[in-house]
Amino acid sequence: MNDELVLVNIKQYNQIKQAINDELALVNIKQHNQIKQAMNDELVLVSIKKYNQIKHAMNDELALVNIKQYNQIKQVINDELVLVNIKQYNQIKQAMNDELVLVNIKQYNQIKQAMNDELVLVNIRQYNQIKQGMNDELVLVNIKQYNQIKQAMNDELALVNIKQYNQIKQAMNDELALVNIKQYNQIKQAMNDELALVNIKQYNQIKQAMSDELALVKIKQYNQIKQAMNDELALVNIKQYNQIKLAMNDELALVNIKQYNQIKQAMNDELALVNIKQYNQIKQAMNDELALVNIKQYNQIKQVMNDELALVNIKTIQSN
C-alpha cells in the first residue's frame, strides 16, 4: 500500500477525516468490507487541491448541483444504502474478533483489510519480528491466565506496546482515502451515462473482479464459516474475550513462564492455524455470495439520483 498511497499531511487528513465523519454513514458490514477491501489496495488521499480539481472536472461532465443540492442528494443516497447501526457493527466486530487466528503472511494481508478498526497492524519489519516470536506461541486466555502468562510471553512475543499500537493505528488511519484517479474516472464515466453506480453489466464485471479478494460475509455466512472453523480453532468464549480485551487494553499483559508453558501445552493440543487449503475453501465459499450492491439497491439509487437530476434541470431552466 505504501507504494500506492499518496498521503496528505496531517492537517489535510484531519480536515478530510472530520468532513467524512460528519457526512458518511456506516455501510453494512458486507458493503463496508467489500468496498474497503477493493479500495485499500490502491487508495490515495486526495488533497484539497485535488478535491477541487475533481469537483471542477465533474462539474464539466455531470449535472452537479450546488452544495445545498449536493447535500440533499447525498442525504437521499445515504437513506437508500443498506446502513447498519453501530450496535450491529459492534456485534459483528465482537463476534469476528473471537474467531480470528494468525494465518500465514498471505492470509494475514488478506484479513488485515477487514481488521483495520481493531487490530494492531504493524509494518512489514514489525510484522516479521512479531511473527517470529508469536508463531506457535499465541494463546487466548482468561484474565487470570492472561496476567500470569504476561511475564513469560514478553520474552517470546514481539508485541507492540501501547505507544506502538497508537502509532500504528494512527499511521493506518492516515492510509485510508477516497479513491485513486483511475477509480474516479471509472465512476465518473459510469455516472455520465446515467448518474448511477453501475449498470447491471458493470455490476457483474465488478463482482467477478472482486470475487477473488472479498472477504467477510453476512451473518449467515459468518456462522457457517464459524461452524467449520470450530473443529480446528480453540476460541475463547465471549466472557473470556471481554476479560482479555479489557486486560489487554490496560497493559497487553502476559503471564509468567511456568504458567505460560502449562497453558501453552494445553492449548497447543487444540489450537490450529488454518492452512492454505482451508483458507482457499473458505474464500471460495465466501466468493460465491459476496457482491457490491444488489439490483434493487442499484435501481433505487439510480431512481433517486435521476429524480434529483431532474430537479436540478428544472431549477436550471427556471434560473435561465
Q: How much helix is in the residues? A: 55-70%
Overall body shape? elongated
- Our measurement of the CA-to-CA distance between the termini, rounded to an integer number of angstroms, reads 48 Å
Order of helices and strands: HHHHHHHHHHHHHHHH
Question: How much of the sequence is in beta strands?
Answer: under 5%
Backbone structural class? mainly alpha
Provide the low-confidence segments as ranges.
1-10, 19-30, 38-48, 60-67, 79-86, 95-106, 114-124, 133-143, 155-162, 171-181, 194-199, 212-219, ...
Instruction: Please give the domain count.
Output: 1
Major sheet: none
Radius of gyration, in Å, reads 23 Å
Average pLDDT, all residues = 49
- How many helical stretches? 16
Q: Based on DSSP secondary structure assignment, what is the total number of beta strands?
A: 0
What can you see in these coordinates?
The structure is a single chain. The chain is an all-alpha fold and 320 residues long. The protein has one domain (10-319). 67% of the residues lie in helices and 0% in strands. It is elongated. The N terminus is likely disordered.
Task: Summarize the model shown.
The chain is mostly helical.
